[in-house]
Write a structure and sequence with these properties.
Elements (H helix, E strand, L loop, with lengths): L2 H21 L5 H7 L4 H7 L3 H26 L2 H16 L5 H8 L8 H20 L9 H16 L7 H12 L16
Helix pairs in contact: 1-2, 2-3, 4-5, 4-7, 5-7, 5-8, 6-8, 7-8, 8-9
Amino acid sequence: MRADAKRNRDHLLTVASAVVAEQGVDASMRDIARTADVGLATLLRHFPTREALLEALLHTSFHDLTARADELERASTAADALATWVRECVAWTTEYRGVTVLMAAAIKDPDSALHSSCVTLRAAGARLLERAQIAGTARGDMDGDDLFALIAMLAWAGDQPALAPRADRLFDIVGSAVLTSADSGPSGDGPGVR
């Protein structure tokens, strides 16, 4: 990619990030183009669909969360790694309102621009879950799909103004239902979700 094209693409992503952070994932492509001071055709030349734009915006975050799962797998107990990673995933989703709905749809749609990244993220969580199951600290009747759905559910709850004040408590309740070892938390007082 030529240097000027890369600068233009980076500028569009910077502007899109701010607009999507403010308006959510349903932000208008026209608003993004207008805010970037370019025509809609220019935006669409770089990102032909909203999903393509969102995949470009979210790619680094998906990569970072996947790498974080690997890091936690090497450095933490199985229960702590799972709880920490799920909490970080839920916290990340607050950056872009509505992203969990897109992720839940994309994971089932191989034609989605987000599909590959979501599948990779789900696999990272599934590895952490399986490790905790093998260690006997996570319930054995769950799989990566269940974990991905729980992350989406917790993120959705945190995105609702009426439920947001209870988000941490809901996370703790769900965490204690997933993690089975009462002494696996970092402080020894719970299932590692604090």
